[in-house]
Amino acid sequence: MSSAPCELILALDAPRPADIAPALRQLQGTVLWAKVGLEMFTACGPDCVREIADLGYRVFLDLKLHDIPNTVARAVTSVASLPIGMLTLHTSGGREMMQWAARARAEHAPELLLLGVTVLTSTSASSLHETGVAASPADQVRRLGSLAVEAGLGGLVCSPLEIALLRTALAPSVTLVTPGIRPSGTATDDQARILTPAQAAAAGANFLVVGRPIFNAPDPVAAAKLIAQEAAHASSAKLSSHAAQ
Ligand SMILES: O=c1ccn([C@@H]2O[C@H](COP(=O)(O)O)[C@@H](O)[C@H]2O)c(=O)[nH]1
After folding, report:
1. 128 in a domain, yes or no?
2. What is the Cα–Cα distance from 206 to 176, expressed in whole angstroms?
3. For the whole model, what pTM was predicted?
4. In 25, 54, 107, 170, which residue has its Cα 20 to 30 A from 125's Cα atom?
5. Which ipTM was obtained for this model?
6. Measuring from atom 5 of ligand 1, which residue has the nearest CA?
7. Does a structural domain hold residue 2?
């Protein structure tokens, strides 16, 4: 198990960094990581990645690549020149796609952590079955997670409900990143497989990705600080209890 406390990643789901500038400025130094996703990247491209990095954040580029192996490997090569620390691809693209991506990373961006998205946190058991997958979300996450690690990825994106099972199934060095985080009393929105920050951190997540519970809160800076504290506290308690055993 990792000895580092669980950290918060801010999900920047806005078209431009300028749209969330006050929160970004006020959280500099308190939150280390920010996630640029499809909305921001399709609106302003690599420039917004550099802009967020220039503000002092480590950037998680959440492009969820999913294509034939050659195309995904070339996309990994293209983003290798950007100041990013994490990049996502869909594990459902299969072993070969992930192996090609892992080779491109080794050659062009050895410091970059490639994360395999397993089953989206917005997917319920019934919506997964509708796509033709008979397995439960937990079994499908275990299967895809193991495949991703065999193919050479360093981490996974899963729901907090699967953190404990992945911690049992995989090496402790695998980084587990979880969206689907909802502090008690906040709206579920379109997320289906959720836990609170403390529950996810106690289960063994390395990073929590949180967007709307922060940016839709009356005071986003206070909301982010509370979530970061709750996660750090729960993971430190877990680490101390492991050390005592
Ligand atoms: O399975 C996944 C993979 C990625 N995400 C992304 O995380 C954030 C969550 O935002 P909230 O507002 O906290 O729900 C968002 O950027 C998603 O694209 C995910 O939710 N689930």
Report:
1. yes
2. 5
3. 0.96
4. 170
5. 0.99
6. 179
7. no
